[in-house]
Design a protein that fits this description.
There is one protein chain. By secondary structure, this protein is α+β, with helices and mostly antiparallel strands. It has twelve helices and 35 strands. Strand 31 and strand 32 form a beta hairpin. Helix 7 packs parallel to helix 9.
Amino acid sequence: MTVKAKRAALLGFDCAIPKRLEALVAEGALPNFKKFMETGSYMTEGYNLPTVTPPSWATICTGAYPRTHGVEDYYYYVEGRSLEHKQTVQAFGSEILTAQTIWDRWDKDGKKCIVVNYPMAWPSKMKNGVMVMGEGISPAETRWMEEGNAHREFLASESVISNDFFPMGVQASFDKARGWQNLPECDEPLEFVVDMPFKESMFPLENQTWYGLCWESGDDGFDTFALCPEKDYSKAFFTITAGQWSGPVVHDFTVKEDGRNEKGTFRCKLINLSDDAEEFKLYVTGISGHRGFIAPAEAAADIDFSEDVIANDIGLVGFMHGILDMDSVVELAQFHSDWLVRVASSLLKANADWDLFYMHSHPIDWFYHGWLGDMDSKDEEVRNRAYDMERKIYQIEDRMLGKMMEIFGDETLVCLCSDHGATPIGPILNTAEALKAKGLCHYEPKNSDNYWEIYEESEGYNYVLDVSKSVAVPQRYMFVYVNLKDKYPGGIVEAEDYEKVRDQIIDALLDFKHPETGERPVLLAVRREDATVFGMGGAQAGDVVYALKPEYMAEHGYGFPTGESGCGSLKNILLFKGPNIKKNFKYERPRWLADIVPTICYATGNPIPDDAEGGIMYQIMEDPNLVK
């Protein structure tokens, strides 16, 4: 008799690339992924479009294609706003979904679902389940309605205290220590005093005065540092030396609006401290909150938030600004994983009668955004460093997989997947340039000091578009709009000219030759309604939908999932393991992310979401005829 799975779990590894996973498994670096493959089924041709985070994760939890679930890009066009790309907002959270999620459908039947850090999940609509905020790419953050790459966190984002200026930090310098209590035994310690701001907070926080103290432990110069909330060394947050991390620090932070105190956990690393203390750099992780991001709120009581930090973005922006090195980023990735494992395992143990578990983890994607290009470098040393770092990031995820599999047990159907892959950044296409060459739009180059806009140049949007002079407006990753006079603010195109302008846009995109290569970068450009054949073309699509050749991509988002370039690929990983799943089986025909939800529902005998469109993966089952 065929046994149905008692429950189901999905672990999502953002941007994990199949051929890179296979290579690391082959070299013996990933024992838990290897075991999963040997005891489960592996789909080598995993597809989704567009190849970017929000729409892919929306498909993975609804079983619907983007045209149906309403999320067709990383960004979301808000009706009534200008068509300019800078006016779009990040497309995260459950409020914009127009298709039912698997957990909402199961919850309707009284099932208990646990959802942790899932990008399209928050706010929760469940009556029986537990949810840890997923409204961005990291736990306890929101990106919904935020422009560019802005975000807000429970409680605040990362920072740095240094003698140098960094946009995300605070400048300080050491001077003779005065007025301290309980100083350590040392000669002539030095101090700094900073008015510490807490940026990107979910609720604006009051600044705090923090005090740095450094001294010589021997005769070789200043080498020991303490950070304190007041001039009393006995109350120091921690004491460390150069290259060391502090332990977790739990501290109170005051919300400006109503004066309430919120507990937060953070860690610091003393990146460097010169012998004369003239040069120093202290990295401060984000302040990880203890409440406000779990529903129901009382479920937070099952979790100890004092031991781990979220480490949002694993220090990628800090690395880009020259604050952190690669080793520090790997360490932050481990902190991030530790937080996820503690929260997930605590909730699963506290809710032993759970039926469905979904969790998303982002470190691989952050890594590829920072170092995928280095993996294709002609410099062997640069290339080897990047490959070594990739291995360490995947090993962190491998250890997390091992810990989670111990909790899931043998009666659970487990799916491992990624939302998309990535390819190294090639020659960047400025879509507005292609349109401007045909007289369809007008723009000027852009300069910005906002440190969160560091990605814009790599995405081809470092310009300011003049909508009043543009009949065509490029927006987001794959769209161009006809700037209709009666539909959009600043529109200039008459309704009767709509089709003519649309044809001009398609011709401009397909005719354009990249100035660096002399080749055509655009693979395909079609009318919105024609894009429905590959799952797009819904209400959030532009009037023209286009895709690039993989070698012209800014890692992912613009191309077909079949794209391969350099060491990268745009395919997603897709594996299943559990009751009635074939062991050591490789399925080499295409499967879409929309097929995950129907397969989970069928294999567990649970109801399918109302809007699911994908197909059941019968071929990976020992007995596909569960309905007899």
